[in-house]
Write a structure and sequence with these properties.
Residues 1-22 form the signal peptide. The protein is of the alpha+beta class. Strands 1, 2, 3, 7, 10, 13, 14, 15, 18, 19, 20, 21 and 23 form a 13-stranded mixed sheet that branches. Strands 24-25-26-28-30-32-34 form a 7-stranded mixed sheet, with no helix packed on it. The longest helix is centred in the C-terminal third of the chain and has 21 residues, at 712-732. The chain starts with a helix and ends in a 6-residue tail after the last helix. Bound molecules: 2-acetamido-2-deoxy-beta-D-glucopyranose (NAG) (12 copies).
């Protein structure tokens, strides 16, 4: 009894001694839902929380605990939309802060359903509060401060009920406290599990005993496997060696192992996780005890010696544990421990980059709405309309609002993978998206956009592009074909027309076109003839020479070379085929196709090879009636012209290969040589030798800025070359071929200005009808052009 009295005296003395040396600098104590300021029994000033929070309703709850009855204000958050946040000022604080919150339900609403909800600090969810388990519930976290304002938020959880809070305290901690031994876990938050004042059994100690107002719980409620008497002795210690500065009153009591050789604290933990353990020892005994420290069966410290009047602290982290026992094992004299702190290590998610945050704020302003976008966009929970991966904002969905245009600010959201701006009154052209190189899904449907703009083709990651129900006009740009990952392109219900670029005609891409004026890959599927710009003539007729038929076919080239303009002459270079012989339609079979594979003259390319050679169809060097021509480079360095065909009626697979077979046999110095072809899925691609001199048309009319003056001699040579090429087609080749589209854009020049005729050969299949009609026209000496 005398001993206890002594202790009480010591405690009071110590307490007053402490008060003399500290004040409440930096303390913030909020009475949640309270209206009046007051000073409590510990001389701590409390204020209403209303200046730090904007949401929630308030009420008071009366309850009795033991002999005392309390009248406690609470704030609850019936509107579960978004985050319910306090913004705590920590501006003046240069160290970590302790944030302590208390939650009381006590049936304030008369429903008898204690809620469960989660709580976050900054970007980290720190804990889940379950008031069924404990009411009231107290949470404490050590937070490393690096901002002016620390958001503290309550979040509803499914079926959890209405979050409720009764008090919130901010306490600056000593500089550098709780960082020792955290090497593996820099900049983490610590959630308090235990803070035990070992050997002390008369309630909790806090301010003013602890100037930092930590709550040190009495030892009695823990269950060491072997109980021993607590010691408390009037001594003072030089604590400045310990950054955590435990109060002297706490160090003056210890649990000391007197008779047995093992002292163990068993400390159950809430979660499987990483934990930080701090052990305080003080030399309150006249002897210097030495002992081993064992945590969860692992020897963490051998022969720890605590010298008289010396205070020491040990720090440990333990990864992936879900229970904790700490054992002190006697080596000599009386092992002891003065205080134990155990914290769960809580990860603090990275904050979203400030560029992204300010961009989103600008966007929020431009909507003219309060979207409730505050604090970090991604953590602890993403804002409404936003999706995140880690600390990157990867999706933004704003719809049914009045945005009018895609402002340049959207271009700052560099990590976006999904952007959905459907029904946001967008007008004009699609713009300001070029920097969104991660963008995979873009939904701009249900707007009033009129033009594709030039940004889309640069969005190399795009997979889904939804432009339905806009006012897009004109033709679909060929450049969209450069989006090689695109697999859905929705152009429905626009005002588009014309043929779709062949580059979009691939197996992996679904193009939706209905509801436009006239839009398809093949003009023949267009019913609206008026929107069909031109009906093209078939370009070739392939006739097989009937062998051994005794008389030579009569074929004449009627050409004229001369006059003022070679171009004119060439255009009017007329080709007559006069044939009276019986012709037979060329028919080939699967067998021919197999032969083709073995045929050396023309190489069979895979679509992949073509894509590689053309650098994914990058450079267009010409646009013919049958499709675009791209510059390509074969692995051996040879330049080629890659012609991607599309036609009103594509050739059947057999016919295509058959004709390629024929063409590949035609070799003449004045005919452009077919190097190879590709026939995969719907693709029909021809690979020709590349002629760097451009076409005669380019040279005459200065297209492609190639204009050079052609001398008369040169013009004559070109005319002769072209005539020789045509002559070979008509008379030399087997089968004989009628060009039927001789024009100066179909005469190409090489480096030395030798001319070669191109674009002969493939066309729609030669049908009997064609032959018949050709019979007539040939007999009538008609022009073929
Ligand atoms: C209470 O705190 C104030 C300053 O916050 C101080 O002036 C006063 O002396 C304290 N009172 C007691 C009884 O500690
Ligand atoms: C919360 O307060 C609002 C007005 O501030 C009121 O309309 C609402 O009914 C209150 N909710 C509850 C559950 O008391
Ligand atoms: C810091 O706190 C002191 C009082 O403790 C106050 O006078 C000062 O204005 C604060 N500074 C800032 C930047 O809030
Ligand atoms: C809260 O705790 C009670 C009892 O421990 C349990 O039945 C209930 O499922 C818990 N609620 C949540 C949301 O975890
Ligand atoms: C920890 O936080 C400080 C201040 O915010 C920062 O300077 C430091 O780089 C961070 N350390 C790590 C490892 O993240
Ligand atoms: C416990 O502390 C209270 C004051 O906080 C004191 O009145 C009481 O006598 C103490 N009890 C013992 C057993 O020391
Ligand atoms: C406390 O210890 C520190 C070094 O750890 C020393 O600098 C300081 O003088 C000591 N203070 C007292 C009062 O002994
Ligand atoms: C302490 O924990 C270890 C490992 O978790 C276990 O093997 C040992 O039995 C525990 N000791 C006691 C006394 O609970
Ligand atoms: C423990 O350490 C003390 C001094 O620190 C030493 O005198 C003693 O021999 C050591 N005991 C053992 C068992 O290592
Ligand atoms: C343990 O402590 C006692 C004193 O309480 C001492 O006699 C004994 O030698 C110590 N060592 C071991 C290993 O028990
Ligand atoms: C577009 O948003 C408006 C509200 O801004 C809404 O009335 C309309 O129904 C929406 N239209 C579509 C197609 O979603
Ligand atoms: C784009 O948004 C519209 C309107 O909500 C929707 O109908 C359509 O399915 C979306 N497109 C894609 C590809 O998700």
């Amino acid at each position: 009894m005398a001993f206890q009295c002594f202790w009480v005296w010591l405690f009071l003395l110590c307490g007053f001694w402490q008060v003399a040396f500290c004040d409440q600098d930096g303390f913030l104590s909020l009475s949640c839902g309270g209206t009046a300021s007051f000073i409590d029994s510990s001389n701590i000033s409390w204020v209403s929380d209303s200046t730090y929070v904007t949401t929630g309703n308030t009420t008071t709850v009366d309850y009795t605990e033991g002999s005392s009855s309390s009248h406690v204000p609470v704030r609850f958050f019936p509107d579960s939309q978004g985050r319910n946040c306090y913004r705590l000022p920590v501006k003046n604080v240069s160290s970590s802060v302790l944030i302590r919150s208390q939650f009381v339900y006590k049936n304030y609403d008369g429903l008898g359903r204690p809620p469960a909800f989660s709580v976050s600090l900054g970007t980290a969810i720190t804990s889940t509060i379950n008031l069924t388990t404990s009411d009231p519930w107290t949470e404490e976290s050590v937070w490393p401060v690096d901002t002016d304002t620390l958001p503290f938020c309550l979040h509803t959880i499914p079926d959890g009920g209405i979050p409720v809070i009764s008090s919130l305290e901010v306490r600056p901690l000593p500089q550098g406290a709780y960082k020792s031994g955290m090497g593996d876990f820099p900049n983490k938050s610590l959630r308090k599990c235990y803070r035990i004042n070992c050997g002390y059994s008369n309630g909790s100690l806090r301010y003013p005993v602890d100037p930092y107002d930590r709550i040190w719980d009495a030892d009695e409620s823990f269950s060491p496997s072997r109980l021993s008497t607590g010691f408390n002795i009037q001594l003072s210690f030089n604590q400045s060696s310990i950054r955590e500065s435990p109060p002297i009153a706490v160090l003056q009591t210890a649990r000391v192992l007197a008779r047995s050789d093992v002292l163990t604290y068993n400390l159950p933990l809430d979660n499987l996780g990483d934990y930080h353990i701090v052990l305080f020892f003080a030399g309150i005994l006249p002897v210097s005890p030495s002992f081993d420290v064992i945590i969860n069966g692992n020897l963490v410290q051998t022969n720890l010696t605590v010298k008289n009047l010396e205070a020491i602290a040990l720090f440990f982290t333990r990864k992936g544990i879900k229970s904790l026992n700490i054992t002190f094992k006697n080596i000599s004299f009386y092992p002891l421990v003065n205080a134990i702190e155990v914290y769960e290590i809580v990860d603090i998610p990275l904050e979203v980059s400030s560029t992204t945050v300010s961009a989103l704020q600008v966007i929020e302003q431009s909507t003219g709405l309060d979207l409730g976008w505050k604090d970090d966009p991604c953590s602890p929970t993403p804002w409404n309309h936003i999706g995140c991966e880690g600390s990157e904002v990867t999706s933004l969905e704003l719809s049914d609002i009045n945005l009018r245009s895609i402002s340049p600010t959207f271009g700052d959201l560099l990590d976006l993978k999904t952007l959905d701006l459907h029904n946001t009154s967008l007008t004009g052209q699609i713009q300001n998206l070029i920097s969104l190189q991660q963008l995979e899904k873009l939904n701009l449907s249900f707007n009033r956009l009129t033009s594709f703009g030039s940004d889309l083709e640069k969005l190399v990651s795009l997979q889904i592009l939804d432009l339905q129900n806009n006012s897009l006009q004109g033709i679909v740009p060929d450049s969209l074909g450069e989006l090689k990952d695109l697999h859905l392109l929705n152009l429905e219900n626009n005002k588009l027309q014309g043929t779709l670029p062949q580059s979009l005609n691939r197996e992996s891409l679904e193009v939706r076109t209905s509801g436009n004026l006239c839009l398809s890959f093949t003009m023949s599927t267009c019913n609206d003839a008026s929107s069909n710009p031109s009906i093209e003539t078939p370009q070739v007729t392939i006739l097989s020479k009937k062998k051994n038929n005794g008389h030579n076919p009569r074929a004449t080239i009627i050409g004229a070379v001369g006059g003022a303009l070679v171009a004119l002459l060439l255009i009017s270079l007329s080709v007559f085929m006069f044939m009276r012989r019986k012709r037979s339609e060329v028919t080939y079979t699967e067998r021919a196709r197999m032969e083709m594979r073995n045929y050396n003259a023309a190489k069979v390319f895979s679509y992949k090879e073509i894509k590689a050679a053309t650098n994914n169809f990058k450079e267009v060097i010409g646009r013919g009636s049958f499709g675009s021509v791209y510059l390509g480079k074969l692995p051996d360095g040879k330049l080629v012209a890659v012609k991607v065909r599309f036609d009103r009626t594509q050739l059947g697979a057999d016919s295509f290969i058959n004709e390629v077979h024929l063409l590949s046999q035609i070799r003449h110095q004045n005919l452009v040589c077919l190097e190879g072809f590709c026939h995969e899925a719907k693709q029909q691609i021809l690979v020709y030798e590349y002629l760097p001199g451009g076409s005669l048309a380019d040279n005459l009319y200065g297209l492609n800025s190639r204009k050079i003056t052609l001398s008369w001699v040169r013009r004559l040579k070109i005319a002769l070359d072209a005539a020789k090429g045509l002559d070979y087609l008509h008379n030399g080749s087997d089968p004989r071929i009628i060009h039927r589209d001789v024009k100066c854009s179909n005469i190409l020049l090489d480096m030395e200005m030798n001319a070669k005729v191109c674009d002969f050969g493939l066309s729609k299949q030669v049908t009997q009808a064609d032959c018949n009609s050709c019979d007539h026209c040939c007999q009538g000496h008609c022009w073929l052009s």
